[in-house]
Structures are given as structure tokens and as C-alpha cells.
Specification:
Layout lengths: L8 H16 L8 H14 L2 E4 L6 E5 L8 E7 L26 H17 L5 E7 L8 H7 L7 E12 L2 E3 L3 E4 L1 E10 L3 E2 L9 H17 L8 E10 L5 E2 L2 E10 L2 H22 L2 E8 L4 E3 L1 H14 L4 E3 L11 H7 L2 E9 L18 H21 L1
Parallel strand pairs: 3-4, 3-5, 5-16, 6-15
Antiparallel strand pairs: 1-2, 2-4, 6-16, 7-14, 8-12, 8-13, 9-11, 10-12
Helix pairs in contact: 1-3, 2-3, 3-9, 5-6, 7-9
């Protein structure tokens, strides 16, 4: 990797220390108090002003450039971890049983802090806002940031996420839709309980649940154009109390992922229609509730061009790769995309000898070279954006 892509050595070592400290002490959504303290201590060390919303809130750092009237660019990282029991065996593995930074948020925080360190060393001509948000994994913490008004006046926002889909040094920058719209649903079924030996005297909620589980899949396989990505997954089923008792109630919970508004609307209406049909068919009460989730992440064309220019300026091994298809995963960065011109990229962490490790795995880890790559990208993308938007 050329020296053009590498921050000062002491900055890289500091990022490694920060990442490992954060990795050892993971906190779940809206509980990121100790995490916020680590971030604020580093911002204090760098001499960057910040605001903190308290438990459940964001840490917002602000660095004013040489010209306060110049554009303002935001760089975003997430603070929360996952309810996962770590099995990496790392010397800096999670010290909290059942919690782990299994999605790379420890890396994301360290890269934003690394970019901030570089901006202090060599201030950009405009203004930079460093966003450390709560609750990306669950709860939509991006809305907390937006509702606080902390991003008023921001002209563009950028973020990056680690992934094993690409190799170390590769940065995915794609136009348009990057991640899917996510919605949740619940189906409560109430039949009539009875003895397992006398099914004619009961209305079996388990049978109704089984019919709905299989029928709902046809909304994707038989009612949706195959070229339009969509997923309906029922991940939770609760029913029954004993082998010889016909269950009176059952509950299904699932997720819907789509990339097109028309497909989303059809799947919502389809699940509700099947619920009504099951109620009529089996003489049961079936209540369907659909909950809106995270909006899709849709990159702005201008910000994509800015991100690609930033990667080009990094030189060395860093190079742009394209995402072939939108991910059906969800990201609450989509809330930012709805209000601010945005670009969301991905940093490769896989080497030629690595086996693929999915996000949220208890074995998830990264090649720490991604820290300097991510920080160098965020440093440069802020500078390019300020120059381009001036």
C-alpha cells in the first residue's frame, strides 16, 4: 500500500487501541454509555468539541474549518453491539458474556476517530461533523440524531461498513439502492383449544399457523416478479403447551425485505389478505400487524462520484468495486439518506487465505489494516466533498 493511503503510524496504532478497547466492552442498543465515554475521551484528547445526548443519545463531534461558511460534511459510525456470545478467542475478546461487536461497529468508530485525528493534524477547508449514533442494530438510532437537529446544515453524509464480501483494500461504492427496505410483521391466531384426541371439537391454531407459513411464501414465489428482489421470512413461531393439547393460540413473527415501493405494498397487502382468508377458512380470529422498519439505503449520484474520487486519491492498493445487486440486509443509515445527500460504502476485510465469515457471527473479526483504509477514505472523502460542494 502506498504511503498516500496510510495515516501517520501513531494514529494507526491509536486506532487499533481504540478498536480493541471498544471490542472488549460492547454495549447493546441505547445502552452505549461506556462506549460514549471512550469516544468523548478521544475527542477531548484531539481537542474536538462535542455534544452528548446522554444514555440512549449520540455523540456529535464538530470541527470547524478555516472557512466557517464553507460546506459541512458528516461522517457517521454506530456505537451498539449485538446480543451474541463471542467465540473468536481473541486476546481482546468481549469481556461481557452474551454481547459482542459482531458487526464491526468497533471498527467503524475507530475509523471515524482516525479520520478526525487526521483532520486535526491537517484541517480541511470546511466543517466536519463526526456522528457516533446509538442503536443501529435495533431501534433506529439514526432517528435520534435527526430528531435532535444535530445535522441541520449538513450538506452531505458518508459512512462505511466492513464486510467479508470484498478483500482488504477494496472499497465498494455503488450508485442507487445499496440495502433493502425492512419491515416487520406479527400474526396472532386465536382458535379453540381442545383435547388432542378430539380435533373435531377444536379449532387448531397450529394448523392455521402452518398454512400461513407456507402460503405466505407464495407471495414472493408466485406473485412477485422474479427480477424484483424481495424476501419474506418467518423467524419466530410460538404455539402449544403439551403434545396432547390442541393449541388455542399461535403467534408468528417475521420480516419483509424489498427494494421497490410497489413490491413492498403488494407484500403488505398480501399478508393481510392471507390472514383474512385463514380466518374465514378455519373460523378463527387472525390479527395481522405490520410494522414499518428501516428505509432503504439509496446513494446519491453526486456523493457516489465524490466517494470514488476519494478512493482514487488514496492510490496504492485501494480500489473501487461495484455491488452487483442490492443487499437484502437493512441499515438505519437509510433514515439519513431520506433527508441528506448520502453515500454508504463497504470496506473489504477478507484476505486470500480467509474463509468467509458473515456479519453477526460469533466468529467475526477483521484484518486490522482496514482501520487505516477506512480512516484514510473518510479523511479524503470529507476533503473532496467540501471542495466539490463549495
Amino acid at each position: 500500500m502506498s504511503t498516500a493511503t496510510v495515516l501517520e503510524g501513531n494514529t494507526f496504532q491509536r486506532m487499533v487501541e481504540l478498536r480493541r478497547t471498544l471490542h472488549e466492552h460492547p454495549e447493546l442498543a441505547f445502552q452505549e454509555v461506556q462506549t460514549a465515554e471512550v469516544i468523548m475521551a478521544e475527542l477531548d484528547r484531539l481537542g474536538i468539541d462535542y455534544e452528548y445526548g446522554g444514555k440512549g443519545g449520540a455523540v456529535i463531534g464538530r470541527l470547524e474549518g478555516k472557512d466557517r461558511s464553507a460546506p459541512t460534511v458528516a461522517l457517521r459510525a454506530e456505537m451498539d453491539a449485538l446480543p451474541v456470545h463471542e467465540r473468536t478467542g481473541l486476546p481482546f475478546a468481549s469481556k461481557v458474556s452474551g454481547r459482542m461487536h459482531a458487526c464491526g461497529h468497533d471498527v467503524h468508530m475507530a475509523t471515524v476517530l482516525g479520520a478526525a485525528a487526521h483532520h486535526v493534524q491537517d484541517p480541511p477547508p470546511g466543517n466536519v461533523v463526526y456522528v457516533f449514533q446509538p442503536a443501529e442494530e435495533r431501534g433506529g438510532g439514526a432517528r435520534v440524531v435527526l430528531e435532535s437537529g444535530a445535522l441541520e446544515g449538513v450538506d452531505a453524509i458518508f459512512a462505511g461498513h466492513v464486510t467479508y464480501h470484498y478483500r482488504v483494500g477494496e472499497i465498494m461504492v455503488s450508485r442507487g439502492t445499496v440495502t433493502a427496505q425492512s419491515d416487520g410483521f406479527g400474526i396472532q391466531i386465536k382458535g379453540k383449544g381442545g383435547h388432542g384426541a378430539r380435533p373435531h371439537e377444536a379449532i387448531d391454531a397450529v394448523v392455521i399457523a402452518g398454512m400461513l407459513i407456507t402460503s405466505i411464501q407464495t407471495l414472493v414465489s408466485r406473485e412477485t416478479d422474479p427480477v424484483h428482489p424481495s424476501v419474506v421470512t418467518i423467524g419466530k413461531v410460538v404455539a402449544g403447551s403439551a403434545p396432547n393439547v390442541i393449541a388455542e393460540e399461535a403467534m408468528l413473527e417475521g420480516t419483509i425485505r424489498t427494494t421497490l415501493p410497489a413490491v413492498r405494498k403488494h407484500l403488505h397487502q398480501g399478508i393481510e389478505r392471507l390472514g383474512r382468508a385463514a380466518a374465514d377458512l378455519y373460523r378463527a380470529d387472525v390479527d395481522v400487524v405490520i410494522r414499518g422498519g428501516y428505509p432503504p439505503v439509496v446513494n446519491s449520484d453526486r456523493e457516489v462520484d465524490i466517494a470514488r474520487e476519494a478512493v482514487r486519491l488514496m492510490g496504492g492498493e485501494a480500489r473501487v468495486v461495484e455491488q452487483e445487486y442490492p443487499s437484502m440486509g437493512a441499515e438505519d443509515f437509510g433514515f439519513f439518506c431520506k433527508q441528506i445527500p448520502s453515500c454508504y460504502v463497504r470496506y473489504g476485510v477478507r484476505t486470500e487465505t480467509d474463509d468467509y465469515i458473515p456479519l453477526h457471527s460469533p466468529l467475526f473479526d477483521v484484518d486490522e489494516r482496514v482501520l487505516e483504509i477506512g480512516a484514510a477514505f473518510l479523511d479524503r472523502v470529507a476533503r473532496v466533498a467540501i471542495a466539490r460542494l463549495a
